[in-house]
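User: I'm curious whether this sequence folds into something compact or stays loose and floppy. Could you predict its structure so I can see for myself?
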Amino acid sequence: RLVEILIAPYQPVDGDPKLLAWTTGEPWWSGPMPSATAWSEFRSALGAVEIAEDAFHPFFHEVVRVVPADDPDEPPSLVEQLWPGAVVGGLVLVRSGVVVRAGANRLDPAVAAKSCLYWAWWRRNRLVRDLSHGWGSNSQWGTEFRRDYVVGDELHYNVDLRLNPQMSRTGDEVSDLPFEDRRELLRWRHSRTIDLGDDEWPYFDWLVEPRRR
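Assistant: Here's the prediction. I'll summarize afterward.
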């Protein structure tokens, strides 16, 4: 979760009280803000490779803002990068934060940019939900991280749920959402056109899909 602090200087600030920690009424991170160069310096020290995808993909990109397109069916395309994502080996350390252009049938500007971001501990610009929230100070170290990997021409989402049967429960056991809605939260980590809410439980799904070139 150090990475989520390091990318914070690049994020727009939303003063909505709903974004505050429900346990304390304060931001999930209330310590000092890192410098704008801290994220770059950390990547260099770690030997991480910057994500450099020319086309938008939710595996590599986190939607921060949506510019509406005239064509309601226009797929998302990259407009601006707010912070660079990074990969260590095949592991996605964090996705790039981006502004995209898209039609309303693909991404609703308010829903895609402001709906709850799952598997996220803290953002300055939107509501987040993470398994570590609300379990005391030790939960930050005792809660498993989500791991997504690029493996050759495949994209592997939430790999631990596939690799460790003892951790795995099917999404059907823990969520009333239809399969396609659960898949949306797994791939995007947030809602796209209809807000699916902030109290869902998408953490027990996994996916392997081909990588587009």
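Summary: Residues 136-141 have pLDDT under 50 and may be disordered. Residues 49-120+134-210 form one domain.
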